[in-house]
Write a structure and sequence with these properties.
The complex is a heterodimer of chains A (587) and B (380). Helices cover 34% and strands 22% of the residues of chain A. Chain A is an alpha+beta fold. Chain A folds into two domains: 166 residues, Penicillin-binding protein 2a (Domain 2), CATH 3.90.1310; 362 residues, Beta-lactamase. In chain A, strands 2, 3, 4, 5, 8, 16 and 17 form a seven-stranded mixed β-sheet that branches. In chain A, helix 3 runs antiparallel to helix 5, helix 9 packs antiparallel against helix 18 and helix 12 packs across helix 17. Chain A is elongated. The chains are: A alpha+beta (587), B mainly alpha (380). Chains A and B meet through helix 1 and helix 2 of A and helix 7, helix 10, helix 11 and helix 12 of B.
Chain lengths: 587, 380
């Protein structure tokens, strides 16, 4: 077949039409069938979910003093695959951030893409390092915005405030228990960036703002806390106990006004703290309370109308054989009224009061006072203590428990039990958090006082209160706890420490004093516990002689701070002579 | 139908020009060398647009036989300017290629003149030696040798794309003119072989070839551009992201305003507009071929065919490259891509086509009118 030019020209045209039809199909294939795949690839390349970090809420005391807040800082990280000059970078960064060069070089070796070089680098230092890196044209070191949690008061209230880990999760204290409020919610925004990595602001996509964390206001008053911390430090210097705990609480509401423990640590240097320094002994240490526990059998017997306050009980001249075992008093007593059993702290009398109530009822009263269960304070790690049921008691348990042996209680539980007496027989739930506000200060939640139960009748509480006033008199065991100008009620405790080998250690004591002030209209309840205090003579290691004066000093300053009206009668009377422990050992 | 072909042709060209200038507006603002002026490329392209239209109209008014008579002038101009590319200070070296000649503020590519000159030469040759077009020497060897001089110059300035384009267009013209199909087949085989040979000699071309065979493996370097182009196509989808909303132009897709503007059309305006662009090229080709078919002489037919082949092949290579059907070649999309010389050359070609149409369709009508006028002259 012979074609002329026109036919061939038409042929060329057809060829082009075929070719371009092919292109059309290719376009349809790419733009319709492959749309999802490539759109995904595009999103992967361009779109980046940028987190907007929420700021963790601050923690305040009752007077809005800052206890914990945030300071912006930078985290310096490196991408080992981006490093262009390892040696120069190691030299520069090592000097600037004060990291040993060998350690830095070791970190940067390999091809990990996210290596944290140093956290909490101050902004100014980070800026200067960034400029120096740019000046030398070094790549691979990046800066991330972060914030450092700062505790302005250092070690003060450390166990209550607690601290956070690097990811800003609370892991101790209020930081942990209130974490869900403090944390806030991180937001995010989808941003697109060009190939050079710059954001294309024009195409800013879906965005969710972050919600900053709520602020937590504690019931703790930093001024009272300061008084307590000073006194506990003084006590540590004077008696060098292994551990010490002091709690101040408002009995009507259960608000904890101050809480201090020793040993302690500086919150800003938490990385160096030892585990035993980080324990909040007020809620996680089990102790045998000793004689302070006697308020329980006395309250039980009075509330059950087994005895009256002036009923006399024979105290066996200080030695009572019960169940085949001798029960001693620290002094021989003959007949003591119920009031005097508390005032003189007679073990025999307390045992007889418990016996008059009966094992089961006595156990119930112990539990009603809140022992053996968690108090529910907003602090993590609280233990319930150890109260065995009557079935597990030995024959002599009924005589030992009343004097505060064979039971394990926390200092906070003991404070609460004393608060029951101060608060007309009502057991409150202790509280450390007063309110939660949002970042603008609007109240999110206020925690109102919670009455857990009426443990004993108000009348019984008043009677016990009368007896406890006697304790802090020259007749009682805690004359040294008196506060000039105020009537004060309280109870001493001296418990032999349980020897890990079994039995009790004769030389080691847990001494305590628990009391409240003013006796007729209590403003605060306090507890002072010193574990294994060192005194020059063992006979001086008594709650009334060691813990009493500490309480007295705290109560005096606290009363002054709280502007309490001194009690009229006593103001006219002569000040009570202080028992001075001049011969106390000072290591 | 063919009486309207020139109007359709011109309309299609105008549509493409409008799409081109709009897309240039959208993409060039993000281009790297915009000299800090968002309108830098748009201003320059608008100037070239004006120059190109003026040249197009001029070419439409000038009798195309003028080109038949003066083909050797243009051929010489092409040779000289191509040689200028190698003269220091005149020739400009960009990206390793000496394709540009700078005169004052303007730069242009002599290979654009060479394209036109090659077509004019072949049209002249085969209209003069119509009878011997099947002859192995007169119809094949001599024209091939002349074209080869041009191609040799262009390939040494490292412009494989234009070399292939001129070679392929010459092939089309020779095929239409009636060169021995056996010889042409042989030629195309050696041509493809030669291209492969040259490509393997240059590492950059080799990498592009390898990237074409396996785009995933080379998506970071040689295959980057085509991979990014595919992403642009795909993410545009049916609807497109909307004019100005393309993401790939943000430095992801290199040369998004010149050679790779077509994927940006796909990304921003969607499948419908990208199919429309393909359709407009088909309109230009079909109308162009119609004009050539109805040309009043053989030179018009061959020149028209050659111009259509140049436009069509250039568009086909560009679309093929940007859709990853062909290995990466730097050829602009006619009428759309940024680039002054190419725009002017393409518009000149359109102008010549319009003149061929005028002489074939409009002027005979005037003649008939004259004869009819004579016939109806009343006899008094």
């Amino acid at each position: 077949m012979k074609w002329n030019s026109r036919t061939r020209c038409t042929l060329v045209c057809l060829g082009f039409i075929l070719l371009f039809s092919g292109f059309s199909f290719r376009l349809i294939y790419l733009q319709m069938l492959k749309h999802d795949e490539y759109a995904g690839l595009a999103a992967e390349k361009h779109v980046y979910k940028q987190p907007i970090y929420a700021e963790r809420g601050a923690i305040f005391d009752a007077n809005n003093e800052v206890l914990a807040h945030n300071v912006p800082c930078q985290t310096v990280v490196a991408d080992a695959t981006h490093l262009n000059n390892l040696d120069a970078i190691v030299d520069l960064v090592g000097v600037e951030l004060r990291i040993p060069k060998s350690e830095l070089a070791e970190k940067l070796r390999g091809d990990r893409r996210y290596i944290v070089l140093k956290r909490a680098v101050p902004e100014a230092l980070a800026d200067s390092l960034r400029e120096k890196l740019q000046a030398q044209n070094l790549h691979g070191v990046y800066f991330e915005h972060d914030s450092a949690r700062i505790y302005p008061n250092g070690s003060m209230l450390c166990h209550v405030i607690g601290f956070t880990d690097f990811e800003h999760h609370g892991i101790q204290g209020v930081e942990a228990s209130m974490d869900q409020y403090l944390r806030g919610e991180d937001g995010y925004r989808y941003i697109e960036h060009n190939r050079a990595g710059q954001e294309i602001v024009l195409y800013r996509g879906q965005e969710r703002a972050s919600r900053n964390g709520y602020q937590v206001h504690l019931t703790v008053d930093l001024n009272l806390q300061n008084i307590v911390e000073n006194e506990i430090d003084a006590a540590m210097r004077e008696y060098s106990p292994k551990k010490a705990t002091i709690i101040l609480m408002r009995p009507q509401t259960g608000e904890i006004l101050a809480m201090a423990n020793r040993p302690h640590f500086d919150l800003n240097l938490r990385a160096d703290a030892k585990p035993e320094q980080m324990k909040n002994r007020a809620i996680i240490d089990m102790m045998e309370p000793g004689s302070t526990f006697k308020i329980v059998p006395a309250a039980a017997a009075l509330n059950e109308h087994k005895v009256q306050l002036d009923t006399t009980i024979f105290c066996e001249n200080g030695l009572w054989n019960f169940g085949g075992t001798a029960l001693h008093d620290h002094k021989p007593f003959t007949d003591l009224s119920v009031k005097d059993i508390l005032v003189k702290s007679s073990n025999v009398g307390a045992a007889k009061l418990a016996l008059s109530v009966g094992e089961q009822k006595f156990y119930e009263y112990i539990r009603r006072f809140g022992f053996g269960e968690r108090t529910g304070v907003e602090l993590p790690g609280e233990i319930p203590g150890l109260i065995r049921p009557p079935q597990a008691w030995s024959k002599i348990s009924i005589t030992r428990i009343p004097m505060g042996h064979e039971v394990g209680v926390t200092p906070l539980q003991m404070t609460l039990a004393m608060a029951v007496i101060a608060n007309g027989g009502k057991l409150m739930t202790p509280r450390i958090v007063k309110s939660i506000t949002d970042a603008d200060g609007k109240t999110v939640s206020t925690l109102s006082p919670v009455v857990l139960r009426q443990v004993i009748s108000p009348q019984t509480a008043r009677q016990i209160g009368d007896a406890l006033r006697g304790v802090v008199s020259d007749r009682g065991t805690a004359a040294a706890a008196a506060v000039p100008g105020f009537t004060i009620a309280g109870k001493t405790g001296t418990a032999q420490k349980v020897d890990p080998k079994g039995g009790y250690d004769k030389d080691k004591y847990v001494v305590s004093f628990s009391g409240y002030l003013p006796a007729d209209r209590p403003e605060f309840v306090g507890l002072v516990v010193l574990d294994d205090a060192q005194t020059s003579k063992p006979e001086l290691n008594y709650g009334g002689l060691v813990a009493g004066p500490i309480f007295s000093r705290i109560a005096e300053k606290a009363a002054r701070y709280l502007d309490l009206e001194p009690h009229e009668e006593i103001r006219k009377a002569l000040p009570v002579e202080r028992v001075a422990l001049t011969n106390a050992s000072r290591r | 139908m063919h009486r309207k072909s020139a109007y359709f042709l011109f309309l299609a060209v105008l549509c493409l020009l409008v799409i081109g200038i709009v897309m240039l507006f959208s993409t060039s603002a993000f281009a790297r060398d915009s000299h800090g002026d968002v309108y830098f490329f748009v201003k320059r392209q608008a100037a070239w647009f004006g120059i190109g239209l003026a040249i197009c109209i001029t070419a439409a008014l000038v009798d195309y036989h003028f080109w038949q008579r003066t083909w050797w002038i243009w051929f010489s101009v092409a040779l000289v300017t191509l040689a200028f590319c190698f003269v220091p200070h005149l020739g400009m070296r960009i990206n390793g290629s000496r394709r540009w000649v700078g005169i004052g503020p303007f730069t242009f590519q002599p290979s654009e003149i060479a394209k036109i000159a090659a077509v004019f030469f072949l049209a002249f040759w085969f209209s003069r030696y119509e009878k011997t077009s099947n002859h192995p020497v007169r119809g094949f060897a001599i024209p091939l040798a002349v074209i080869a001089v041009l191609l040799a110059l262009i390939i040494t300035e490292v412009d494989l794309g234009t070399t292939v384009l001129i070679g392929a267009a010459s092939f089309v013209v020779m095929f239409v003119a009636g060169t021995n199909p056996m010889l042409l087949g042989l030629l195309s085989l050696t041509g493809v072989g030669g291209i492969l040979l040259v490509a393997t000699q240059m590492s950059e071309r080799m990498a592009r070839l390898a990237a074409f065979v396996d785009p995933q493996r080379f998506k970071q370097d040689a295959g980057l551009q085509q991979m990014q182009a595919l992403i642009a196509w795909g993410s545009g989808g049916m609807e497109g992201l909307g004019l100005g909303n393309g993401r790939q132009k943000m430095l992801y897709l290199p040369y998004a305003h010149t050679d790779f503007i077509f994927p940006m059309i796909g990304e921003e305006l969607g499948l419908r507009i990208s199919l429309l662009v393909v359709f407009l090229f088909v309109v230009i080709i079909v109308c162009g071929i119609m004009i050539a078919l109805h040309a009043k002489d053989r030179f018009g037919l061959l020149a028209g065919c050659g111009i259509v082949a140049l436009l069509g092949l250039q568009a086909a290579v560009n679309i093929g490259v940007t859709t990853s059907l062909l290995p990466n070649k730097g050829l602009p999309l006619p009428f759309i891509s940024y680039g002054g010389s190419n725009l002017v050359a393409c518009l000149f070609g359109v102008g010549v086509l319009l003149n061929i149409y005028r002489q074939a369709v409009l002027e005979p009508r005037n003649q008939t009118q004259k004869t009819m006028q004579a016939r109806i002259t009343p006899r008094i």
